[in-house]
Amino acid sequence: MYCYQKVYHIIRPGDTIFWLAQMYDTTVEEIMDNNPGINPQNLQVGSRIVVCPGKAGMEQVGAQMPMSDMPGQPMSGMPMSNMPNQPMNGMPMSNMPNQSMNGMPMSNMPNQPMSGMPMSNMPNQPMNGMPMSGMPNQLMNGMPISNMPNQSMNEMPMSEYQNMYYDQNGYYDPQDYNSAMGYIPPQTDSYGQPESNPLHDDMRRAWAQHVYWTRMLLISIAEHLTDQGVVTTKLMENPQAIADIFAPYFSQEAANEIGNLLTEHLQIGGELITALRDNQMDKANDLNKQWHVNASKIAEALAAMNPNYNKQELQAMLEQHLDLLTEEVAARLARDYVKDIKAFDKSERQAEEMADYLSSGIVQ
């Protein structure tokens, strides 16, 4: 596919190929094709990748075009050739032969800067108080001009920013470094990943839907509601939604296996709720055993798919997921609605933690 408007994106903490595809209105496959050899599971912070954004992606600010691609264009987009005699406020310099910025003729200010202090008392001082002799090749933000021959700020590797802001100037702190990049460190979840990236959000949303619609099915079965069929149909869409999140990062076969096992998990859960409602305890005990075996298979499949996942940790999380659902079912069937709601609250929080674990393993 021909790229009409190539831009560069500097990888930042928390970036994923899926997230970038969403941000730039393109596809994971398109980004992979334009960056041969890139490892989507190990994006190097500070490295540069090529993106061909879609129409909506052109409005994003995550990448800057090199100045070499913008001949004669300042940041405002107006050709420099159209600004031969214009200061920043738009008034021709020729109309300001003897005017200071506040409108007072410079002839009336023979030795006075704007602050009122005689210039003779400020022989080598710019406005911020730093001796000009200490800034022979400095821009206002402290970056040497010689280090920016043809670079936009976001195209320079992070390591070069760090060297400038720590080695050369000394007194800058990391917040200045982040500000210079136009980057504000995002809030992170309990696993250290940004809470505002699509992978994190998609995984949380999918597992939230998992526990929400499981609860809807529990209520339908417990109360003999006529919506059980349509609720079940909606719930059974969830395994594919979770599989689709994994698919861009792992094989389609592995993602499908996760989806199939989650489908089995939900089917067993529905039958177990019905057996408990109808007081068929032998059947319920057998289904409960199948449920826990299925959880072990899910943990094993996830660990085999992604080496960043720990099978024992996954097993423990999935067992807790089943225990909390069991607690919720028991309370609902006993008509203890206060305990039922408290159990669901715990189940919801645990599902978020499990989702964060799964998405953080992909980001690593």
Features:
single chain, 364 residues, mainly alpha, two-stranded antiparallel ribbon, 11 helices, 48% helix
Fold blueprint:
Elements: E1 7-10, H1 17-23, H2 28-34, E2 48-51, H3 158-168, H4 174-180, H5 198-222, H6 228-235, H7 238-246, H8 252-277, H9 281-305, H10 311-333, H11 337-363
Antiparallel strand pairs: 1-2
Helix pairs in contact: 1-2, 5-6, 5-7, 5-8, 5-10, 5-11, 7-8, 8-9, 9-10, 10-11
What does this structure look like?
The chain is an all-alpha fold and 364 residues long. The chain has 11 helices and 2 strands; from the N terminus they run βααβααααααααα. α5 runs antiparallel to α6 (228-235). The protein is elongated and about 65 Å long. The chain starts with 6 loop residues before the first strand and ends with a helix. The model is unreliable at 61-104 and 106-186 (pLDDT under 50).
Global mean pLDDT: 73
Q: What gap, in angstroms, lies between the N and C termini?
A: 30 Å
Structural class: mainly alpha
Q: Strand tally, please?
A: 2
The stretches of 5 or more residues where confidence is low (pLDDT under 50) are 61-104, 106-186
Rg from alpha-carbon coordinates: 30 Å
Helix count, per DSSP?
Answer: 11
Main sheet: strand order: 1-2
Proportion of strand residues = under 5%
- Shape from CA axes? elongated
Helix content: 40-55%
A few lines on this structure:
By secondary structure, the chain is mainly α. The protein has helices spanning 17-23, 28-34, 158-168, 174-180, 198-222, 228-235, 238-246, 252-277, 281-305, 311-333, 337-363; strands at 7-10, 48-51. α5 packs antiparallel against α6 (228-235).
